[in-house]
Amino acid sequence: METQEDMITMKSGRVMLIRNGEMMPMEDQMTMPDGTRVSIDGQVIMPDGSTRMMVEGETMSMEGKSVEPEDMTDRQFKENMEDEELRDDIH
């Protein structure tokens, strides 16, 4: 059985943690192995000190790397899409 990778995603304006295939609100700031920090409001602080905000639908691996939709299964991608019109356009 394939193990699902844990990820962080921005959904409906909230940072969500995807762990073992289950999505739940992130409750505390997380620090990735590379030093990237993600706060519960979606602020990303890179190891070099630069900052940015996560955007709706953005997904990051626990290594601090952005996960492109083609890197996710169809189910994970659809779960992370907020806009139903886009979801309908995929069919």
Which key terms come to mind for this protein?
4-stranded antiparallel beta sheet; alpha+beta; 91 residues
Question: Explain this structure to me?
Answer:
A 4-stranded antiparallel sheet has the order 3-2-1-8, with no helix packed on it. A 4-stranded antiparallel sheet has the order 4-5-6-7, with no helix packed on it. It contains 2 helices and 8 strands, in the order ββββββββαα. β2 (14-19) and β3 (22-25) form a beta hairpin. The protein has helices at residues 74-80, 84-90, and strands at residues 7-11, 14-19, 22-25, 30-31, 37-38, 43-45, 51-53, 59-61. The model has no long low-confidence stretch (mean pLDDT 80). The chain is of the alpha+beta class. It has one domain (7-86).
Task: Write a brief structural summary.
This protein has 91 residues and is of the alpha+beta class. 15% of the residues lie in helices and 31% in strands. It has 2 helices and 8 strands; from the N terminus they run E-E-E-E-E-E-E-E-H-H.
The percent range for helix content is 10-25%
The low-confidence parts are none
Coarse morphology: globular
Total DSSP E strands:
8
N- to C-terminal distance: 27 Å
**What pattern of helices and strands is seen along the backbone?**
EEEEEEEEHH
Strand content: 25-35%
Order of strands across the biggest sheet? 3-2-1-8
In the residues, how many domains can be counted? 1
Structural class: alpha+beta
Average residue pLDDT: 80
SS field, number of helical segments = 2
Largest sheet: 4 strands, antiparallel
Radius of gyration equals: 13 Å
